[in-house]
Amino acid sequence: MQCPLLCKEFVIDIWQIYYARSKGADAILLIAAVLPDLDMKYMLRICKNLGMTALIEVHDEKELDRVLRIDGVELIGINNRSLETFVVDTSNTRMLMEKRGDIIKEKGILVVGESGLFTPDDVAYVHSAGVSAVLVGESLIKEEDPGRAIAGLFGKELLS
Ligand SMILES: O=C(O)c1ccccc1NCC(=O)[C@H](O)[C@H](O)COP(=O)(O)O
């Protein structure tokens, strides 16, 4: 199986998207907290033209509402880590899904639960809130065997 590659960066300029694509990225992170709506819309168009997926990251209701007003959004990441305080709270995902899950579902948008996921219970918690995928950093990079760590995080053996 070929693994899709996400460029996880603070993207503020278009050249970064072309650069990521030239290095083999399939998807790129666009952070609503650092991008005006017009930039997000333009960058989303560039991504589509390049055959890339944009993972649009939000932290709160205000950012989520801005993103939900943009046409063509297919993938939203709800970050449980505040960019201002770095405090992690996984209930952020649940809270935003409770508030906007209906419209997200109606629009056919997939949601990624991001940050602060260390155990199968954490993953199950955000899954039960309605996310279809997770973005995990710290708990995997600290492990010697990432494949085993991923399987452990999902609470079952995924690799055969
Ligand atoms: O990515 C950055 O440059 C960065 C800067 C400042 C604070 C955090 C930053 N990144 C955090 C991550 O990329 C996390 O690894 C990712 O959100 C996943 O979260 P976790 O599983 O808790 O590591």
TrEMBL record:
Gene3D superfamilies: Aldolase class I
InterPro entries with a match to the protein in the record: Aldolase_TIM, Indole-3-glycerol_P_synth, Indole-3-glycerol_P_synth_dom, RibuloseP-bd_barrel
Any Pfam family matching the protein: IGPS
The enzyme's E.C. designation: 4.1.1.48
Matching CDD domains: IGPS
GO biological process: L-tryptophan biosynthetic process
Keyword Amino-acid biosynthesis attached: yes
Keywords: Amino-acid biosynthesis, Aromatic amino acid biosynthesis, Decarboxylase, Lyase, Tryptophan biosynthesis
Pathway listed: Amino-acid biosynthesis; L-tryptophan biosynthesis; L-tryptophan from chorismate: step 4/5
Catalytic function, reaction form: 1-(2-carboxyphenylamino)-1-deoxy-D-ribulose 5-phosphate + H(+) = (1S,2R)-1-C-(indol-3-yl)glycerol 3-phosphate + CO2 + H2O
Source superkingdom: Eukaryota
GO MF entries: indole-3-glycerol-phosphate synthase activity; phosphoribosylanthranilate isomerase activity
Domain Indole-3-glycerol phosphate synthase, residue spans: 2-151
Protein name as annotated: indole-3-glycerol-phosphate synthase
Organism taxonomic ancestry: Eukaryota, Viridiplantae, Streptophyta, Embryophyta, Tracheophyta
